[in-house]
C-alpha cells in the first residue's frame, strides 16, 4: 500500500513544519538557495519550450520536472514553508513561535531570491552570448512577459493589484497541494505523479508564483524589458508573496489541519470518564 | 552465476563461528589447580551474548585454590549467559567477575593469610559480533597469533621482588574489591587467540607456540603438543592452553537480533470494530505518521490492551520496522511500575504489531495543558516517578533517546509511566550489530540533547537533558533554550546558547530549583548531574553550591579566553623584563 491515510499526513505536515522552524540557519539558506536556483532553471526551460514550439501546453506539461527535482532533493520553497511552518505554531508545538516562523520565512526568501538571481544571471549570459549580442528569441520573450505582468497590472490600478493577488492565492493553492500530495505517497514514482498534476495546472493557468517571478522579472530587466525594479517589486513580487502566503495557509494548510488533524482521535480522548464498552463474550 | 549467488547468500547469512581447541595437564604436580572451559552458544544467544572462553589458575601456595579456579570459570560461563541481553559484554562480564570475586574473598577465614585463601588468576575471552572482549586479572596471558609469533594482549599483574621472587599483584579472591583489565579488539576472519597459564608460556616461546599451531592437524592436537613441549622443557607447574580460531564472522547486514520477528509482514491498518489475531479491536486511540494505536480486548487474558500497528507511511522502511519490532523486545526486558509493560498473550503473532498493557490516563502533554501552573510539589512527584522509570532503562544498558511529554503517561491512579520504545538504544544490541541507527537523530527537536546535533551518540546524560527540558517545561511552559538547540549544530554555535532562567519566567520556581534545572540541561554533558538522585535532592532542598546569583568565575565560564588573557599578560611581562635586562 503506497497511499498514506490522511490523518497520517496531517500529522506529518505539522512535523515537517516544526522541523523547518528548528532548522539551522545554514541548512535553511542552502536548501532554499538550491530550491530557488532549480525552480528558476525549470522556468527558463519552460519558456524555451514555449518559444521553440509555440505551444504553451507542452511547456506547462514539462515544467513540473523542476519542482519534482527540488522536492525530492529536500529543498525548500517559500511557497511550501508558507503552508507548513505556521501549522506547528497553530498545533501549539512547544518552542514553536511566530518569531521562529518569520525567521524561517525571511531566510527562505533570501535563499530563494539568491538562487533565482544566480540562475537569472547565468541564463542572461547564455541568451546574450555573454552580454555581447542582442538577446535571442527566448530572451526577448522573457523581457515581454515581465512587462505585461508588471506594467499591465499597474495600468489597471487597484483592480490590477487585486488580480495579481488572487492569481497568487490560486497559485500557492495548487503548488502547496502538490507539496502535500507528495506526502501522501510513499514511493518516488507516486510522489512525482502527485506533484505533477497541480503544478501543471498552475503553470498553464499562468498563475503568479513568487519564486518563478524572482527569476522571470530580474532576467526580464537584464534582457532589456521595459520596466524597473520598483515596478517589479511593487506591482508584482510583494502582492504575489502575500497572495502565496494566503493561498497556502488557508486553502491547503488550514483546511487539512482542520479536517484531518483536529478531528483525529487523541490518545487520551475521553478516557478519564468513559468506561470501555464491555466486549461481547 | 546462480551458484555464485547462492554461495553469496549463504555467506551473508552465516553467523559467527569459532573453533576451539584446549588442553590442561597437572604436569609434574599432584593436583591440577588450573581450570578452563568454553561455551559455544548458538542462535539468539550467539548473537546477543557470543561465544566465551575462560581460564583460571589457582595459586600454588593455597590448597583450596583449585576450588577457586573451578568456581571462577564455572560461574563466569553460566552467569554471563544469564545476564540481561541488553547489557554490553563489558558490563555483564565485569559484574559477573566482581560477584565471583566477592564470593571467593568471603571464603577467607578471618586472620588467615592471603596465600592460603581461595585465590586464582582469571582470564576470559568473549567473541560477540565482530569484536573480541578480553577480561584479565593475574599472570595468565591472552595472545593473538600474529604472523609467525604471538602478540601478548594482556599485561601480567605480577610484582617482581628479585630475580627469583615475585608474587601476584592482582588476583580473584585477594581483596573485596577487584580491578579488572578490560579490552575490546576488532576481529577479522582467521584470527587465532590463545590463552595460556604460566606453566606453558614460561617454558615455550611464543614462536614455538605459533609454529605448533601452524603445523598441527587441528586445534586440540596443537594444544596437546604445546603442553607436551612445555613439559619436555621442564615445566614444573600446571599447564593449560586454550586456542580459538575465528572461522567466520557474521555479515554486517545479516544479523537478526529478533530471530525473524522483524521479518514478519507489517500488520494492516485495522477497522473498527473487527477481529485481529484473536484481539477484538474496540477503538482507535492514536494515529500519526509513525504508528496507529488501537484499544483492543484480548479474550485469552480477559484484558484490554493497546495494540500498535506500523503506519502506512513508514512501513516501507526496514529500519523503522526493525525498531518497531524491537519495542516489544525492550518492553519484555524492563520490569518497572513506571515503564509500560508488554502484553501477556501466548499466541504467536503472524504479523508485525506490538501489544502492550492499556493504560487509562492522559499524557504528560495533556496534563501540562490542563495544569498550566502546577505547584512545585506536584511536579516533583511526577519527576520522581519518571526518574524511576528512566533508571530501569539505564540499569539495563538502554537509553530511551526520545523522552518527551507525549511519551509519558499519567494514569488515573497517579502512577506515571514511560511509554514508546521506538528510539531505544540498547548497548548489548549495538555490540552485536555495530553501525545500527548511526545516521539518524531519533529524538525530537525540542527534547533531544545538544550532543546529538553534533553527531555524537547519546549517553545516559542525553536522557538527563531531555528530562530536564520536560521539568523546565512543566514549570514554565517554555523551553530552556527556546527553539535554538537543534539549530546549533556546531560546537561554536552551541557555546553561544544561553539558558533562560526559569525563575525569571515565573514566581513559582525558586532560584535554587532554577539552579538545579540549569545544571540538568547544561549544554555540555560533563557539566550535567552525574546521577538523577542528586537532581531530585537539589529540587527538594536548596543546594548552596547552585546559587545562580553567584556568577561562575571567569576561568570556569570561558576557559579558553581565560588562558588567552593569562598568556597575554605573561607575554607582556616577559617583554617588559627583557627590555629591562637589555643594556642601556
UniProtKB/TrEMBL annotation, chain A:
Tagged with keyword Magnesium: no
Superkingdom assignment: Bacteria
Keywords: Membrane, Transmembrane, Transmembrane helix
Location in or out of the cell: Membrane
Mode of membrane association: Multi-pass membrane protein
Sequence similarity: Belongs to the FNT transporter (TC 1.A.16) family.
Name of this chain's protein: Formate/nitrite transporter family protein
Native source species: Roseibium algae
UniProtKB/TrEMBL annotation, chain B:
Gene3D superfamilies in alphabetical order: Phosphorylase Kinase, domain 1, PPM-type phosphatase domain, Transferase(Phosphotransferase) domain 1
Domain PPM-type phosphatase residue range list: 19-246
One GO molecular-function entry: kinase activity
PROSITE patterns attached to this UniProt entry: PPM_2 (PS51746), PROTEIN_KINASE_DOM (PS50011), PROTEIN_KINASE_TYR (PS00109)
Keyword Lyase: no
Organism: Roseibium algae
Protein keywords: Kinase, Membrane, Transferase, Transmembrane, Transmembrane helix
Protein kinase domain segment(s): 279-561
TM helices/strands, residue ranges: 562-579
Keyword Ribosomal protein part of the UniProt annotation: no
Name of the protein in question: Protein kinase
Amino acid at each position: 500500500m503506497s497511499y498514506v491515510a490522511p490523518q497520517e499526513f496531517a500529522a506529518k505536515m505539522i512535523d515537517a513544519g516544526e522541523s523547518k522552524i528548528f532548522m539551522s540557519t545554514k541548512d535553511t539558506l542552502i536548501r532554499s538557495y538550491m530550491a530557488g536556483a532549480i525552480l528558476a532553471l525549470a522556468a527558463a526551460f519552460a519558456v524555451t519550450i514555449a518559444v521553440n514550439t509555440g505551444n504553451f501546453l507542452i511547456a506547462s506539461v514539462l515544467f513540473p520536472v523542476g519542482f519534482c527535482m527540488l522536492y525530492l532533493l529536500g529543498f525548500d520553497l517559500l511557497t511550501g514553508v508558507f503552508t507548513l511552518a505556521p501549522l506547528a505554531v497553530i498545533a501549539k508545538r512547544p518552542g514553536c513561535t511566530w518569531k521562529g516562523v518569520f525567521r524561517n520565512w525571511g531566510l527562505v526568501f533570501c535563499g530563494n531570491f539568491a538562487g533565482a538571481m544566480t540562475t537569472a544571471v547565468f541564463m542572461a549570459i547564455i541568451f546574450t552570448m555573454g552580454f555581447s549580442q542582442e538577446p535571442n528569441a527566448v530572451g526577448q520573450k522573457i523581457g515581454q512577459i515581465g512587462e505585461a505582468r508588471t506594467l499591465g497590472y499597474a495600468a489597471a490600478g487597484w483592480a490590477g493589484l487585486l488580480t495579481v493577488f488572487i492569481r497568487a492565492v490560486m497559485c500557492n493553492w495548487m503548488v502547496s497541494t502538490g507539496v502535500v500530495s507528495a506526502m501522501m505517497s510513499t514511493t518516488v514514482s507516486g510522489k512525482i505523479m502527485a506533484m505533477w498534476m497541480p503544478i501543471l495546472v498552475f503553470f498553464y493557468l499562468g498563475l503568479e508564483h513568487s519564486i518563478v517571478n524572482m527569476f522571470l522579472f530580474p532576467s526580464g530587466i537584464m534582457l532589456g524589458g521595459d520596466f524597473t525594479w520598483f515596478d517589479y517589486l511593487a506591482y508584482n513580487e510583494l502582492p504575489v508573496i502575500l497572495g502565496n502566503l494566503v493561498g497556502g495557509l488557508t486553502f491547503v494548510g488550514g483546511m487539512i489541519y482542520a479536517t484531518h488533524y483536529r478531528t483525529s482521535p487523541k490518545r487520551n480522548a475521553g478516557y478519564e470518564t468513559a468506561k470501555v464498552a464491555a466486549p461481547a463474550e | 552465476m546462480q551458484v555464485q549467488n547462492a554461495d553469496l547468500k549463504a555467506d551473508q547469512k552465516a553467523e559467527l563461528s569459532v573453533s576451539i581447541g584446549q588442553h590442561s595437564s597437572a604436569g609434574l604436580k599432584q593436583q591440577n589447580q588450573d581450570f578452563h572451559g568454553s561455551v559455544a552458544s548458538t542462535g539468539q544467544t550467539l548473537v546477543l551474548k557470543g561465544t566465551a572462553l575462560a581460564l583460571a589458575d589457582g595459586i600454588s601456595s593455597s590448597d583450596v585454590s583449585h576450588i577457586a579456579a573451578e568456581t571462577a570459570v564455572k560461574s563466569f560461563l553460566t552467569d554471563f549467559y544469564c545476564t540481561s541481553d541488553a547489557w554490553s559484554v563489558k558490563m555483564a562480564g565485569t559484574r559477573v567477575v566482581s560477584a565471583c570475586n566477592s564470593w571467593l574473598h568471603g571464603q577467607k577465614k578471618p586472620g588467615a593469610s592471603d596465600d592460603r585463601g581461595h585465590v586464582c588468576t582469571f582470564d576470559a575471552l568473549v567473541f560477540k559480533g565482530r569484536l573480541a572482549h578480553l577480561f584479565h586479572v593475574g599472570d595468565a596471558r591472552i595472545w593473538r597469533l600474529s604472523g609467525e609469533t604471538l602478540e601478548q594482549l594482556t599485561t601480567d599483574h605480577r610484582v617482581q621482588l628479585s630475580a627469583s621472587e615475585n608474587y601476584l599483584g592482582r588476583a580473584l579472591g585477594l581483596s573485596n574489591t577487584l580491578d579488572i583489565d578490560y579490552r575490546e579488539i576488532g576481529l577479522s576472519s582467521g584470527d587465532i587467540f590463545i590463552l595460556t597459564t604460566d606453566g606453558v608460556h614460561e617454558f615455550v616461546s611464543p614462536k614455538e607456540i605459533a609454529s605448533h599451531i601452524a603445523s598441527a592437524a587441528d586445534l586440540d592436537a596443537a594444544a596437546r603438543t604445546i603442553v607436551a613441549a612445555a613439559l619436555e622443557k621442564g615445566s614444573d607447574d600446571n599447564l593449560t592452553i586454550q586456542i580459538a580460531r575465528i572461522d567466520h564472522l557474521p555479515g554486517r547486514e545479516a544479523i537478526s537480533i529478533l530471530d525473524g520477528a522483524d521479518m514478519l509482514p507489517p500488520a494492516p491498518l485495522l477497522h473498527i470494530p473487527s477481529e485481529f489475531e484473536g484481539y477484538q479491536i474496540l477503538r482507535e486511540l492514536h494515529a500519526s505518521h509513525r504508528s496507529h494505536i488501537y484499544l483492543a480486548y484480548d479474550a485469552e487474558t480477559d484484558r484490554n490492551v493497546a495494540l500498535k500497528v506500523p503506519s502506512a507511511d513508514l512501513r516501507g522502511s526496514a529500519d523503522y520496522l526493525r525498531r518497531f519490532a524491537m519495542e516489544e523486545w525492550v518492553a519484555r526486558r524492563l520490569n518497572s511500575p513506571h515503564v509500560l509493560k508488554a502484553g501477556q498473550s501466548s499466541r504467536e503473532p503472524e504479523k508485525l504489531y506490538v501489544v502492550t498493557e492499556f493504560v487509562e490516563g492522559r499524557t504528560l502533554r495533556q496534563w501540562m495543558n490542563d495544569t498550566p501552573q502546577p505547584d512545585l510539589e506536584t511536579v516533583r512527584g511526577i519527576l520522581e516517578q519518571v526518574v524511576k522509570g528512566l533508571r530501569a532503562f539505564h540499569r539495563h544498558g538502554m537509553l530511551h533517546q526520545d523522552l518527551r511529554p507525549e511519551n509519558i503517561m499519567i494514569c488515573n491512579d497517579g502512577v506515571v509511566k514511560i511509554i514508546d520504545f521506538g528510539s531505544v538504544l540498547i548497548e548489548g544490541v549495538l555490540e552485536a550489530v555495530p553501525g545500527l541507527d548511526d545516521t539518524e537523530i531519533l529524538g525530537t527537536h525540542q527534547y533531544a540533547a545538544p550532543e546529538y546535533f553534533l553527531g555524537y551518540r547519546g549517553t545516559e546524560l542525553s536522557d538527563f537533558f531531555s528530562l530536564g527540558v520536560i521539568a523546565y517545561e512543566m514549570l514554565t511552559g517554555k523551553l530552556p533554550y527556546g527553539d535554538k538547540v537543534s539549530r546549533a549544530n556546531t560546537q561554536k554555535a552551541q557555546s553561544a546558547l544561553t539558558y533562560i532562567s526559569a525563575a525569571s519566567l515565573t514566581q513559582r520556581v525558586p532560584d535554587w530549583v532554577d539552579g538545579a534545572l540549569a545544571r540538568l540541561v547544561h549544554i555540555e554533558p560533563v557539566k550535567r548531574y552525574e546521577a538523577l538522585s542528586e537532581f531530585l535532592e537539589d529540587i527538594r532542598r536548596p543546594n548552596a553550591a547552585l546559587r545562580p546569583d553567584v556568577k561562575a568565575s571567569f576561568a570556569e565560564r570561558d576557559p579558553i579566553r581565560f588562558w588567552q588573557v593569562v598568556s597575554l599578560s605573561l607575554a607582556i611581562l616577559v617583554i617588559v623584563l627583557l627590555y629591562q635586562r637589555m643594556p642601556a
